[in-house]
Amino acid sequence: MAMSRTTRAGPPPPTAALGLRERKKRALRGELSLAALRLAKQRGLENVRTEDIVAAVGVSRRTFSNHFANKYQALADRLVERAEQSASVFRARPRGETLWQALSAAMIAPYEHLVLDDSSENREATRLVMEDPSLRAELWKGNFAAQQALAQAIAERTGLDVDREIYPSLVAATAVAAVMTVLGRWLRLKRPPPLLPMIREALELVERGLPEPLPRRRSKLLRRFT
């Protein structure tokens, strides 16, 4: 796959719909990303070279270049792919659901695996991507591409023109920002509550228009984020 992730036109199809060759490509990309994250944790980001990553996985530099333009893309890949996956899940949601029901399910779906594999290594790797300035920049580029794909899916579902009407893009950007905000807070807490309800409740707040809290009182919903 010669095209970089941040320039890809649309989101990947659901895993179940992929052929064997594409599944193998995704599995290898995941191995490269995980190896990069492990090395960054062990040595520090500045001490990780592309040569180290390919040596850890046992592939060539050319193979790495077929998936990523640089180590930063490899390190941010797992979070970027989750954002991209939401657009695919959203398109597959039942038409009988409301927009926000479908969107909430789609935004939560990519993080179910993270919750099931809630190891300290996994959490540290995710925190590294979100907190390092270089990786945040790569993550932002990937998330922007994912937002565009999600906006297109929202436009298709609502019958709007994504190029002429702001609603699909605004909803997509807000949903992605809500999830990333929750994820960042969840990773920083020493004893975090369950992640998926936090994401769901954040999206419910957005759906309700982010109502102003009552003076001198904090709702049960807001307390969960402190």
What do we call the CATH homologous superfamily? Tetracycline Repressor, domain 2
Secondary structure class reads mainly alpha
Please name the CATH topology: Tetracycline Repressor, domain 2
Number of domains: 1
**Main beta sheet strand tally, sense and closure:** none
Instruction: Please state the CA-atom Rg, rounded to the nearest Å.
Output: 18 Å
The CATH architecture can be named as: Orthogonal Bundle
> So what's the CATH class?
Mainly Alpha
Helical proportion? 55-70%
Question: Would you kindly provide a written description of the structure presented here, covering whatever features stand out?
Answer:
The protein starts with 19 loop residues before the first helix and ends with a helix. Residues 1-16 have low confidence and may be disordered. The chain has a single domain (5-223), classed as Tetracycline Repressor, domain 2, CATH 1.10.357. The chain is built from eleven helices and no strands. Helix 1 (20-43) crosses helix 4 (71-92), helix 4 (71-92) runs parallel beside helix 8 (133-158) and helix 8 crosses helix 9. With 226 residues, it is an all-alpha fold. The protein has helices at 20-43, 50-57, 61-67, 71-92, 99-108, 112-116, 120-131, 133-158, 167-188, 195-207, 220-223.
Q: Key terms for this structure?
A:
mainly alpha; 11 helices; Tetracycline Repressor, domain 2; disordered N terminus; 226 residues; globular
In brief:
By secondary structure, this protein is mainly alpha-helical. It contains 11 helices and no strands.
